[in-house]
Amino acid sequence: MRRVKTAILISGRGSNMEALLAAAEAPDYPAEIALVLSNSPEAAGLHHARARGVPAIAIDHRPFGKDREAHERQIDQALKDAGIQLVALAGYMRVLTPYLVTAWQDRMLNIHPSLLPAYPGLHTHARALAAGEAFGGCTVHLVTEGVDQGPMLGQSRVPILPGDTETSLAARVLIAEHELYPACLADYAKRLKVP
Ligand code: GRF
């Protein structure tokens, strides 16, 4: 069967990356994780990826200073060099410039820990709690120039329980993320038209 060559971009611990790597180990999963790339050489997820035998590299953003596009040009080149067809952002904590967004239009997914369009950006759980919401959740969406605003591919709702804190809610939502992202990536990879 066809397996879409996919890269995962991370910045930190990479638990969503691990969920995607685990799912992609099934022979009938429609995406092959061919590369993990981080903007931070210290990202713990890089070690986990290598332990699973997946090539994992860092392209440190710091030497590029304010030139975010120059950093993204290097990322784009690394993706092309690895023959990547689809990109999954998984806790990649850099806001992208139009350069990378345009280069990977309709071929870049992201997961966000809220029920978009509610609470885009940072501190989603704290804001949902402060607003007295009954539900939090997570959303997988295509990446467009507006942060966390692209077309949605799937959502999971997670109840907010009495006494929830930012930490307890984040942990419960994360469990849902680990189910949702592999499912959405699989659906999208199956539908993706690649040359
Ligand atoms: C997740 O909550 C994800 O939704 C958000 O950043 C967090 C990354 O966690 N974009 P991890 O690195 O996948 O564990």
Describe this structure in words.
With 195 residues, this protein is α/β, with parallel strands linked by helices. 36% of the residues lie in helices and 22% in strands. The chain has helices at residues 15-24, 44-51, 68-81, 98-103, 124-130, 166-191, and strands at residues 4-10, 31-38, 56-58, 86-89, 108-112, 135-142, 152-159. A seven-stranded mixed beta sheet has the order 3-2-1-4-5-6-7, with helices on one face. Strand 4 (86-89), helix 4 and strand 5 (108-112) form a beta-alpha-beta unit. The chain is globular. The model has no long low-confidence stretch (mean pLDDT 97). Bound molecules: 5-O-phosphono-beta-D-ribofuranosylamine. 5-O-phosphono-beta-D-ribofuranosylamine is lined by residues 10, 12-17, 90-91, 111-113, 138, 174, 177.
Head-to-tail CA distance between termini = 16 Å
Largest sheet: 7 strands, mixed
Bound molecules: 5-O-phosphono-beta-D-ribofuranosylamine
Helix content bin: 25-40%
Overall SS class? alpha/beta
Enumerate the spans where pLDDT stays under 50 for 5 or more consecutive residues.
Answer: none
Radius of gyration from CA coordinates: 16 Å
- β-strand percent reads 15-25%
Overall residue-averaged pLDDT value: 97
Give the overall silhouette: globular
User: How many runs of DSSP E, i.e. beta strands?
Assistant: 7
- The string of secondary-structure elements, in order, is EHEHEHEHEHEEH
Chain oligomer state:
single chain
Strand order of the largest sheet: 3-2-1-4-5-6-7
